[in-house]
Design a protein that fits this description.
The chain has 223 residues and is α/β, with parallel strands linked by helices. The longest helix is centred in the C-terminal third of the chain and has 16 residues, at 186-201. The chain has helices at 13-25, 36-46, 55-64, 116-124, 130-140, 156-167, 186-201, and strands spanning 3-7, 30-34, 87-91, 108-114, 145-149, 171-172. Helix 1 (13-25) links the parallel strand 1 (3-7) and strand 2 (30-34). It is globular and about 50 Å long. A 6-stranded parallel sheet has the order 3-2-1-4-5-6, sandwiched between helices.
C-alpha cells in the first residue's frame, strides 16, 4: 500500500522533496498530489514548472535538487525492482482519483508543507480539491495523517484549526528545524523536519542524528 503525499502551496518545497526521497529510499510507494498553488511555489523556489503531462521528468528534476537549489545533488530512482513506477501521480482536480475514496487502500497521508489554507480546508472538511479530500478520507478511515504546517506567525483561527486536526487524530508537525543534531548545511535543517514528519508516520529513515542524552553531541562529528 502507498503513502499519500500532498504538497500544498506553502513555502517549503524542499521539505516535500526530502520526505519523498526518504520514502522512496525506505522502499515505500507513493501516491503524489501536488496542489495548484504549490506549483507556483515550486516554480518560485526551484524554477521548476510542474506539469501534469510531464510529471515524471519534472518530479525527477525536483527531487534531484538540493535544498540550496543546486541541481543534481541527489540521485533519485522512481522505479521499483520490477521496473514499475513507485510513484503514482494524481492531478489535484481529479476528485474521482483513487485517494478520494475510503475503499482505496493506503498507509496514510503526509501533507508537507501544509499551508494555513490547506489546514483550514482539512479541519473544516471542505474537500475543495483532491488533496483536501484525500486528507478527509484519511481521517474518516482512521489512518495516520501528518500535517507539516509551515507558517509564522500563527493567528488564533489557524491555531483552532490545528487543535481540531489534533482532536480528529492527525499529527501536527510544525516545520520547525532543531539545531542539536549538528546541522552544518541548509539541507541538514530541511532533513531534520522531513525526518520528524516520517517519525510521526512511523517510517524509518536516517535523515538526522537523534538525541542520545549527551550535551554537546551535536558539535561532534558523526561516528
Amino acid at each position: 500500500m502507498p503513502w499519500i503525499v500532498g504538497v500544498s502551496g506553502a513555502s517549503g518545497t524542499p521539505y516535500a522533496a526530502a520526505v519523498l526521497r526518504a520514502l522512496l529510499a525506505a522502499g515505500e510507494s507513493v501516491d503524489l498530489v501536488v496542489s495548484r498553488a504549490s506549483r507556483l511555489t515550486l516554480l518560485d523556489e526551484t524554477g521548476i514548472s510542474f506539469r501534469d503531462a510531464h510529471w515524471r521528468d519534472d518530479l525527477r528534476e525536483w527531487l534531484a535538487r538540493g535544498a540550496d537549489g543546486k541541481p543534481g545533488t541527489f540521485d533519485v530512482d522512481l522505479e521499483g525492482e520490477g521496473g514499475g513506477d513507485r510513484v503514482r501521480y494524481w492531478a489535484a482536480g481529479d476528485l474521482a482519483a483513487g485517494p478520494s475514496s475510503g475503499s482505496y487502500a493506503t498507509k496514510g497521508m503526509l501533507i508537507v508543507p501544509a499551508s494555513t489554507a490547506c489546514v483550514a480546508g482539512v479541519a473544516l472538511g471542505l474537500s475543495k480539491d483532491l488533496l483536501q479530500r484525500a486528507a478527509s478520507v484519511t481521517l474518516k478511515e482512521r489512518r495516520p495523517l501528518v500535517v507539516a504546517v509551515r507558517e509564522t506567525p500563527l493567528n488564533g483561527q489557524t491555531l483552532r484549526h490545528l487543535v481540531a486536526l489534533d482532536e480528529a487524530g492527525a499529527s501536527v508537525v510544525p516545520a520547525s528545524p532543531a539545531f542539536y543534531a549538528g546541522a552544518t548545511h541548509i539541507q541538514d535543517l530541511v532533513d531534520f523536519v522531513a525526518g520528524r514528519v516520517l517519525d510521526a508516520a512511523g517510517v524509518g529513515h536516517g535523515l538526522y542524528r537523534r538525541w542520545k542524552g549527551e550535551i554537546g553531541g551535536g558539535s561532534r562529528p558523526p561516528a
